Fold:
Amino acid sequence: LMRPLQGSRGRSVVVGTVTLCLAAGWALQTPGGVSLVVPQTNINATVAQNILLSVEYSCRGVATIEWKHVSSWGTTSIVEWRSGNYVNVSTLYKDRVTTFENGSIQLRNVGMRDAGYYFVTVMEEHGTNAYGTIIVNVYEIIYEDLHFVAVLFTFLAAVSAILICFMWLCNKSLHLFQKKTTHKLTASTTEEIELETIEC
Structure:
């Protein structure tokens, strides 16, 4: 009787150990499963452009996503939302931000003050967090100023060309007029000389 009992105990110890290991593995995987990927950590933009701050998170539970902007003007909270629930947008970004299910946001009509660091935090309900950073550089649109200068230069060159042509035509007309006047004067002088000769 003793041998079968010992074998049964041995089997239950093995089964109990395997069950405990599986339960521990399942318990470790379930609560802390949050990850965050930031595909583009540096974004260059020009004034009045729309930019996408792209991220991709995965989470086993319900996640809360928060975006903040840090620059020389200070730290500003942009938006915070819970997957599938509420969205809390800062008043400064009310009409300028769009949120996406994967944790990304889009900023519309960026200005020079939008340059700086953008921090995203994904907080999982069991207390696990993931962090990401994107640097945004915003530049003024210099090519529009150059475009204006080029258009102005072209316009002035065209006006100058027209004025030069007009002056050339005026000069040519004046030259022809002087030639005709000189020819008429010569003809009338010749006629007077002939008349005087006849009278004499």
In short: The chain has two domains: 32-141, 142-187. The helical segments are 2-29, 142-199. Residues 142-187 form one domain.
